[in-house]
């Protein structure tokens, strides 16, 4: 498998690991299936992990069918350079072109998102919106004006750093925590000018705080957890979350190993992080960014083989974050597959959350953020 396919393989769900029984629904639980709200995965995908190194980024008929069945309206699809030896700029430009071609080939099911109204159009037309986003801004090189190049290519979200250090600032696992660099401030200004959403997932705390303060637009933390619940560096502190909310931003809570320490997290851990974020940020500023795909894994033995390889490779590359282990899967075993969004909504309803709040978390909050940040984008 390629690094891209392995990442999506490891992020997908596995029916073989489902915990016994789905969560029981409380009396009066929200019938989210009837409401059909906009559901936006602020960091996710559709890739089918069961077909090896397949064509079209592993988005085959099964992946599309599962995506539609899940109720997914739109998703932030990571493209371009994240880490490795490839030239960041060349690889990223090439992948933008590849995804544009893929979306054209699958225009019956997919729609490239340029504005928030495209997300609404995707829902109205029975398609799924593809939001092109980066998880590293290393492809800017030494020229912040490259932001405009990517904005004109339809890239809508750019994450400043991955786990390590780049020319913009420090990522989550860099102990120095030096914050946003002068070049990073230039890039943030260019992102604001070009109406591209600033994403501060994977950033170090000081980089995150500096960038939120520097940005003239509200920002996203597309996929994270809450450090106030689980003290790991990939999660965000209450200070970061409060500042994000104060600036009008949105934090997407992921379905990842960092929701718990030294054990496999479950859907209950996800609920704990969502509820903590709601308490700290308020109901207008929380969403979901699964950092996973929709289709489930069919072959768990092969999955664990790839998981072990991936953990070894990431540690060797110096990009593994505390909490990444080869015995803890990169998804929530009891909240996977085509009904994961519906079941999450039911669990939140059973906890007493109003339908209006649930719909905001599922996608309404990110849609509002997109309306604000992408308002004048073309």
Characterise this structure:
With 378 residues, the chain is α/β, with parallel strands linked by helices. 40% of the residues lie in helices and 11% in strands. The protein has 13 helices and eleven strands. It has helices at residues 3-11, 32-35, 61-70, 88-105, 116-124, 146-152, 182-193, 205-214, 238-246, 267-281, 300-317, 340-350, 355-373; strands at residues 13-14, 40-41, 74-78, 110-112, 128-134, 155-159, 197-199, 220-224, 250-253, 286-288, 296-297. Helix 8 runs parallel beside helix 9 (238-246). The longest helix has 19 residues, at 355-373. The two termini are 36 Å apart.
Keywords:
alpha/beta; 11% strand; single chain; 378 residues; three-stranded parallel β-sheet
The count of DSSP E runs of length 2 or more, i.e. the number of strands, is 11
Work out the helicity level.
25-40%
* Terminal residue distance: 36 Å
Quote the beta fraction: 5-15%
Number of helices: 13
Pairing-aware structural class of the strands and helices? alpha/beta
Major β-sheet annotation: 6 strands, parallel
The SSE order reads HEHEHEHEHEHEHEHEHEHEEHHH
Helix-strand blueprint:
Layout: H1 3-11, E1 13-14, H2 32-35, E2 40-41, H3 61-70, E3 74-78, H4 88-105, E4 110-112, H5 116-124, E5 128-134, H6 146-152, E6 155-159, H7 182-193, E7 197-199, H8 205-214, E8 220-224, H9 238-246, E9 250-253, H10 267-281, E10 286-288, E11 296-297, H11 300-317, H12 340-350, H13 355-373
Helix pairs in contact: 1-11, 8-9, 12-13
């Amino acid at each position: 498998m390629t690094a891209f396919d392995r990442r999506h393989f490891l992020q997908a769900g596995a029916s073989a690991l489902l915990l016994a029984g789905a969560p029981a629904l409380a009396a009066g639980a929200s019938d989210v299936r009837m409401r059909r709200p906009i559901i936006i995965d602020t960091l996710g995908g559709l890739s089918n992990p069961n077909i090896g190194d397949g064509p079209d980024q592993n988005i085959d008929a099964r992946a599309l069918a599962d995506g539609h069945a899940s109720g997914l309206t739109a998703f932030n699809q990571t493209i371009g350079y994240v880490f490795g030896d490839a030239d960041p700029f060349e690889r990223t430009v090439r992948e933008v072109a590849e995804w544009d071609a893929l979306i054209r080939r699958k225009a019956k099911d997919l729609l490239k998102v340029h504005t928030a109204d495209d997300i609404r159009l995707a829902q109205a037309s029975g398609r799924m919106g593809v939001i092109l986003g980066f998880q590293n801004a290393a492809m800017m090189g030494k020229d912040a004006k490259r932001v405009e190049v990517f904005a004109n290519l339809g890239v809508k979200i750019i994450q400043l750093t991955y786990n390590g250090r780049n020319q913009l600032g420090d990522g989550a696992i860099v102990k120095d925590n030096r914050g946003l660099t002068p070049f990073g401030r230039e890039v943030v200004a260019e992102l604001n000018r070009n109406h591209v959403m600033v994403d501060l997932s994977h950033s170090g705390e000081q980089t995150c705080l500096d960038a939120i303060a520097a940005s003239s637009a509200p920002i996203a933390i597309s996929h994270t957890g809450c450090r106030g619940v689980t003290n790991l560096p990939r999660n965000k502190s209450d200070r970061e979350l409060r500042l994000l909310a104060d600036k009008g931003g949105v934090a997407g809570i992921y379905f990842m190993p960092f929701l718990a320490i030294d054990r496999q997290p479950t859907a209950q851990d996800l609920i704990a992080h969502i509820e903590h974020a709601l308490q700290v940020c308020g109901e207008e500023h929380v969403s979901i960014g699964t950092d996973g795909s929709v289709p489930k894994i069919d072959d768990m033995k092969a999955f664990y083989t790839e998981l072990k390889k991936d953990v070894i490779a990431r540690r060797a590359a110096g990009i593994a974050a505390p909490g990444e282990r080869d015995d803890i899967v990169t998804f929530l075993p009891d909240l996977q597959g085509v009904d994961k969004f519906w079941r999450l909504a039911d669990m939140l309803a059973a906890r007493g959350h109003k339908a209006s709040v649930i719909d905001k978390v599922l996608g309404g909050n990110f849609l509002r953020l997109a309306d604000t940040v992408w308002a004048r984008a073309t």
